[in-house]
Specification:
Elements lengths: L1 E10 H11 L1 H7 L2 H7 L5 H18 L12 E5 L5 E5 L1 H9 L4 E8 L3 E9 L2
Antiparallel strand pairs: 1-5, 2-3, 4-5
Length: 125
């Protein structure tokens, strides 16, 4: 049964502009340490950050909270061995997931030249 859904779309140029204005501080605010290590080695770090930003926003919407009561750091985006995106919820995000009765989180990410879109589904068995 589906418990929550969330979606977000991000213009990559917008993230690039913020990175140019605020530098690494912005990435450090959004990304977990493991994500930040990957970000540092990307040829197009703005696209990588845009995907993580969109996924975390979509997850916060699926949780019904938005970013605010949960931290960017409570949501980590990684990839499985085949490259499929995975979400790991910790802290307040995980507590909210348990509170609403969800036991599974799925994420889909897609990008084109200018935009990134993320879709998150929370469900229970």
């Amino acid at each position: 049964m589906i418990i929550g859904i969330g979606t977000d779309i991000v213009q990559i140029a917008r993230i690039k502009d913020v990175l140019e204005r605020r530098g690494r501080f912005f990435a450090e605010r959004i990304l977990c340490p493991a994500e930040l290590a990957i970000f540092d080695n990307k040829k197009q770090p703005e696209a990588y950050l845009a995907k993580r930003y969109a996924a975390k926003e979509a997850a916060s919407k699926a949780l019904g909270t938005g970013i605010g009561t949960i931290s960017w750091q409570d949501i980590e985006v990684s990839n499985d061995s085949a490259g499929a995106p995975l979400l790991t919820l910790t802290g307040a995000a995980h507590a909210r997931m348990v509170e609403i009765g969800a036991s599974k989180v799925l994420v889909s990410l897609s990008d084109e030249r200018d935009f990134v879109v993320a879709f998150v589904t929370l469900s229970c068995d």
